[in-house]
Amino acid sequence: MGSIDLYGESERNETGCNIPFNNALDPEEFRRQGHIVIDFLADYYQNVEKYPVLSQVEPGYLRKIFPESASNNHDSIENILKDVQDYIVPGLTHWQSPNYFAYFPSSGSIAGLLGEMLSTGFNVVGFNWMASPAATELEGMVMDWLGKLLNLPRCFLFAGGGGGVLHGTTCEAILCTLVASRDRMLSKIGRDKMDKLVVYGSDQTHCALLKATKIAGLDLKNFRTIKTSKLSNFGLSIESFRSTIAADLEAGHIPLFLCATVGTTVCTAVDPVGPLCRVAKEFAIWVHVDAAYAGSACICPEFQHFMDGIEGANSFSLNAHKWFFTTLDCCCLWVKEPKALIKALSTNPDYLNNKATDSNQVVDYKDWQICLSRRFRAMKLWLVLRMYGATKLRNFLRSHVKMAMKFEEFVSNDKRFELVVPRNFATVCFRISPLVGNDKMLKYDEEVIGDTEGVNKVNQMLLESINSTGQVYMTHGVIGGEYVLRFCVGATLTEDRHVSNAWKVVQVCADEILGLDS
Amino acid sequence: MGSIDLYGESERNETGCNIPFNNALDPEEFRRQGHIVIDFLADYYQNVEKYPVLSQVEPGYLRKIFPESASNNHDSIENILKDVQDYIVPGLTHWQSPNYFAYFPSSGSIAGLLGEMLSTGFNVVGFNWMASPAATELEGMVMDWLGKLLNLPRCFLFAGGGGGVLHGTTCEAILCTLVASRDRMLSKIGRDKMDKLVVYGSDQTHCALLKATKIAGLDLKNFRTIKTSKLSNFGLSIESFRSTIAADLEAGHIPLFLCATVGTTVCTAVDPVGPLCRVAKEFAIWVHVDAAYAGSACICPEFQHFMDGIEGANSFSLNAHKWFFTTLDCCCLWVKEPKALIKALSTNPDYLNNKATDSNQVVDYKDWQICLSRRFRAMKLWLVLRMYGATKLRNFLRSHVKMAMKFEEFVSNDKRFELVVPRNFATVCFRISPLVGNDKMLKYDEEVIGDTEGVNKVNQMLLESINSTGQVYMTHGVIGGEYVLRFCVGATLTEDRHVSNAWKVVQVCADEILGLDS
Fold this sequence. Notes:
2 copies of one chain form a homodimer. Chain A has 518 residues and is an alpha/beta fold. The first copy, chain A, is built from 16 helices and 13 strands. Chain A folds into 2 domains: 125-375, Aspartate Aminotransferase, domain 2; 386-514, Aspartate Aminotransferase, domain 1. Chains A, B: This is Pyridoxal phosphate-dependent decarboxylase. Chains A, B: Keywords: Decarboxylase, Lyase, Pyridoxal phosphate.
């Protein structure tokens, strides 16, 4: 290596040592450039309302603009931000836009952002307590804080023998709890029975459960998607759960795991947690309650009844990055028996041995999750709780619910539309009603057969028409065979006027598709 | 809900709508507070050198300081930052300190930090292309850019039918590739043979492999930890690999997966990639090459020989958050056959259907990883590559190697010490040599039996003594039964003077333990 000009871009610093020209973490340079990026982002929030919410670019657009290889040369933050503005921003779907009503929100906030900046700035790797004690201790504390706000039973808190951990997303939380339940069961019945284990969810359960089942190596033949219906507002019925278990036992299978949901992905249905847990208990089934979206609302007393019976579950999770003002990613998982997680997920190589671990006085979070390395996610959740406080947080959430109620009222008052399921939180599922839709559809496409297909197609046309305006972004779902439009309030910047405007867009698009005469 | 005072903390905005007092993403408030946090972090970097590198707090310290529950009231960023300074900073182990030489680095940089800020600021959720096209497109492009810098064969690039994806950490990359290989094999031989599948690594392989094997539901009885020795500098020998396979075949097992390492965790040993891949090919074994730490160095031509034969591997990963100036987390994974990943990991619920996916013209990264939701990690890696350019990045890495060489020279010139293995990158493994150490040890503790235990114990005492100064932080490893101290240069702020000072600390502590007369 002697022949390489190590110092081609170097200079002597004041102590006479050779350092690379401009240390990549030079504090004053960071200060200067950091301020520039803060202003860039503040301007972005000022303007985000003006951008088409759903990006209008074509596949492959970026490769046509940017070079094929990295440059040898360095470049300035000013040039890079210009490219971000010119080429990246148009390719973004603006989840922070006040006109974003799609999927579930990704509710950023000043506190969440600043917390992420601090955590990124410290850039510690908190795999075990010793690698950065504050990261572990703050996480334990903040999970207890949030657990108390949710009125979680003491058995999920550290003081009650349980505990909380921050994962990336719900997929990770479900995978880890599934693996914990699998290994606990196999240690009793033997590995040779692995292919008899059964995993339960409903047809409304998030696909994370299927993915976790695949990754955990369980037999997909034993993955049960229990049908729900409008009769139970797409919640999982006890009778169906019980009869599915009975059939499995009859067939010699072994029930293992149920993922119940508080606020399902498409229509925010709520599975009856308490009754399901009671049935599960009879068969020693591990119950995970996935409240990825709706869990946040449960810091408000008026929503806590949706979690009734949670004391019967083994684990519970919500995504603070969805509707709790904490930037992606931040999934809060509480478990009753951390030991089950630790047993399934721990590894203890020599090079991580340390006295704190040996003392058994600390939590080593590496054994509560898939990965060894972990970011300091607690910082942002702590900032959200500290900076806003419980009262403001509840009012933020209630303001979203109130806006969703307003939209619900708009829909109810237009006879061309129908609400598909009752609104539980801040998501409204609606569609052009079958009579109106099907009549019109026949004019467009004579190949449409049957009422359902017709009305589904006209609603799909409506959604495409709405989103192509760029003024708002909504998404769809299919429940009970019906194509529905989803209007989910939760973007932090959304105000009443955005909801009113969104409804106007829906009406204009509907007028065009259905004819003004409808 | 009518009885709740939704507007207790509200005011009327200029358009006459009710909004919660202070929107949580108010642009001007974000600007003001963002500048404050930038200054806080810049000051932190200015001062980080002065803090004890390894935190000196006791388990449970934070619970004693902070309240047991979240407050109902909001608080100011100024108050919160004061608490961060007073209570969080002392509990941090300062991975960004120039005196941090432990584990592997977590090399932050201005570009990495600003990239993370932008990505957090946009806060998009890029599970599929349509959810934010720029996030997906930039990721594909930047993975090709980095692949080319590493001189990866075309089969790992998108243009060559392969492709790259950003995961959180190597644990995730190994789990996903292991699951892909498992499912590909089982689709050929049938699920009933799952318990015959064998996973191979060496006794130096990262524990991520064991963890992935557990999570994937494979039988730990078939997890092979092939012994290495000083003879091969702790690299996995072809002969051992071959004979282990032969024994497995003899026993009716089915070889599945090898994790080879370029730069092992303790002593940065390099497994012979090319020869191992040739053996693996004979038995259709999936080879993953884990270059978590050392992969970054391979953008320098003089290190690329360590990857010779990589074209025979199925997948390759490195952690840009370790030694590539990209903040945690950012694991770069390239695969030759994305289809194998996608087959194992994809789920396609109705609510994610979209035209771009149907066109088959786009990558939907949700099917390349464990989780559905994903952050816009490409932004920070792109900023690192753009802002520094390949030449500077190579010189940054070379300056670290040069500093490690300097430390190596210090060790060589002190007859009390020995280098345990040859230095390959910027990590030096050293210890008090057996003769010196054991003699001294006998004076301290007469219960010590045998040379190895004695010298290990004296080296452990030395490390504890070094770290208790707070002036530097190093960690240990055990290889071939020997306790070694690791000195890993890679913290971005480290300069020559920090290395010189670290050696002085080692000498002073050694003087004290061994006596000045040694």
